[in-house]
Amino acid sequence: MNGYNNVNGSNESRTSGNGRYARNLFYLSLIEAGWGLGGAFVSPGAVLPLLLSAMGASLSTIGLLPGLGSLATTLPQLVAAHRTAGLARQTPFVVRWHVLPTFAFLAVAAVAWRGGSGSLAVGLLYGALTLWYLGLGYVTPVWLAFAGRLAGPERRGHFFGVLSMAGLLGGVAGAWLCALLLGLLPAPVSYAAGALVAFAAMNLANLGWFGVEEPAREPEELAATASRREPLPAYLRRLYASVAGNSRFVRFLAAQQLVSLHSVLGAFYLVNAQRQFGASPERVMALSGVAMAAQAVGSVLYAAVADRLGALNTLAASQLLLLAAMGQALSARSAEELTPVAILLGLFYGSYFNAKTTAVMELARGGDSAAYQAVNNLVMTPAAVLIPAAAGWATESYGYPAVLSTALAATVAGTALLVAGHAPALLGGLRLAFGRLALVSRQLRLSATLW
């Protein structure tokens, strides 16, 4: 049985082969573009920190935002993976949970419209954002596994790269529109209007689900998923045994724990531009737009090379861009000098998250990709929660350069572990490059001696 099911439940394939692949990629790209455009108006890296700052929140409080997002999106993921493991069709679940979380932005708009400052207003805003993150987390692992099935193992890099490019192009457009909105309307009205735009854009984009066709599972696959309809405790015990016996996946998690300190750069370089260098909100949003544009370019590059290099090699290579971004951020002395940081960080993000997603799919055992995605996110949550919050406190106590230097050292260690343990092709390439450089150096010295 090689048919596809569309959103309306048809069992007959309307297209076949490459045509079906292109159709799904087209409609999902429209959805991602709409979500990218809407998400720019409630960006946790730019708009929400500015809103919290306007409400009088301290750096420590703002530093809780990435941790809240990571914690709230991670908590429901294993439950969702268990709930959907035995479903013959996952499209209704994915669509439902692409719609419900967006209603949280109506609450964000209400809090921002009311204005004010103090702990009550900040608490209400965090409550609304928690609802958004919980809903988003519930669908995330299932959505990633769902998209991986649509792409097939041989074209995952291209598929996720194109989707990311579409989302980021929408994000670039949204960032520039948001900058105009922030310049035209006074705060807090501008932030409330932005939340309403996010709600409208995302739900208009969700109409694209009516064109997506889900691959019907083979009888053998359906039999395997039926065997997973077990109580949650038994499901978790079986999953733990699978992960614990997967040494490559365990080493991958250890490397990513160290690299996770990159969130120090992503969470604070825009706030630092405003507070240390006096950048205007429009300038901050322009930097955010530059980063999104670079991220789109990074996604194009990822889509072009990932399937040939492999996810783990691409992941290791992308982290070299992160190291360069951190070095530039440490040397910056003005807001203008943060532009290269935005470019490098965008290129890094354009490949990093896609490579992580497909790397987990490669490392997953038993085909339970959604569960492995959930485990990866769960293991990364403590660092994602604690690092930005601790960085906010440490920045106020010791200064941003000291905190960023620590993050740089940890990222170097994590990249070395990843290259040594998981990216032999990249390691071999680096050895070959250094060997050739050494040979050229010896030849130059010999030529100088002869002269």
Supply the key terms.
single chain; 451 residues; mainly alpha; Growth Hormone, Chain: A; 2 strands; disordered N terminus; disordered C terminus
Low-confidence stretches: 1-15, 447-451
Query: What is Rg?
Result: 23 Å
Largest sheet geometry: 2 strands, antiparallel
Major β-sheet strand ordering:
1-2
CATH superfamily: MFS general substrate transporter like domains
**Total individual domains:** 1
> Mean pLDDT, as a whole number?
79
Q: What's the order of the H and E elements?
A: EHHHHHHHHHEHHHHHHHHHH
**Straight-line N-to-C gap:** 74 Å
Strand content: under 5%
By secondary-structure content and strand pairing, the structural class works out as mainly alpha
CATH topology: Growth Hormone, Chain: A
**Per the principal axes of the C-alpha atoms, what is the gross shape?**
globular
Number of discrete helical segments: 19
* CATH class placement: Mainly Alpha
Oligomer: single chain
Number of strands: 2
Short overview:
Helices cover 79% and strands 1% of the residues.
Strand and helix layout:
Blueprint: E1 4-6, H1 18-40, H2 47-54, H3 59-74, H4 77-84, H5 91-99, H6 104-114, H7 119-151, H8 156-184, H9 189-205, E2 213-215, H10 219-226, H11 232-244, H12 247-259, H13 263-275, H14 281-309, H15 311-331, H16 339-363, H17 369-398, H18 400-422, H19 424-450
Antiparallel strand pairs: 1-2
Characterization of this structure:
It is a single chain. By secondary structure, the protein is mainly α. The protein has a single domain (14-421), classed as Up-down Bundle (Growth Hormone, Chain: A). Helices cover 79% and strands 1% of the residues. The protein has 19 helices and two strands. It has helices at residues 18-40, 47-54, 59-74, 77-84, 91-99, 104-114, 119-151, 156-184, 189-205, 219-226, 232-244, 247-259, 263-275, 281-309, 311-331, 339-363, 369-398, 400-422, 424-450; strands spanning 4-6, 213-215. A two-stranded antiparallel sheet has the order 1-2. Helix 7 packs antiparallel against helix 17 and helix 8 packs antiparallel against helix 16 (339-363). The longest helix is centred in the first third of the chain and has 33 residues, at 119-151. It is globular, with a radius of gyration of 23 Å. It starts with a strand and ends with a helix. Residues 1-15 and 447-451 have low confidence and may be disordered.
